[in-house]
Amino acid sequence: VNHVRSADFLAELKNKVERCTTPVVVAGDFNLIRWASDKSSPMLIVSACVYLTTALRTLLFVR
């Protein structure tokens, strides 16, 4: 999987969620993981994990 646009995707998602005036649920298969232990293969792109963790914290989904 190519994660070249992961940061852009998460920034766009953050922008859309922040503009909502009512509670919102975001769901989907974003093909991103937070932790190396969630990965079933040895290939890990650390920057993609960082992008997702940062986005979740910024949006207050994870404390």
Topology at a glance:
Elements: H1 6-18, H2 46-58
Helix pairs in contact: 1-2
Question: Which structural traits does this protein have?
Answer:
mainly alpha, 41% helix, single chain, 63 residues
Structural features, described:
With 63 residues, the chain is mainly α. The chain has one domain (6-58). Helix content is 41%, strand content 0%. The chain has helices at residues 6-18, 46-58. Helix 1 runs parallel beside helix 2. The longest helix has 13 residues, at 6-18. It is elongated and about 40 Å long. The relative contact order is 0.22. The model has no long low-confidence stretch (mean pLDDT 79). The chain crosses the membrane at residues 43-62. This is Endonuclease/exonuclease/phosphatase domain-containing protein. Keywords: Membrane, Transmembrane, Transmembrane helix. It comes from Aegilops tauschii subsp. strangulata.
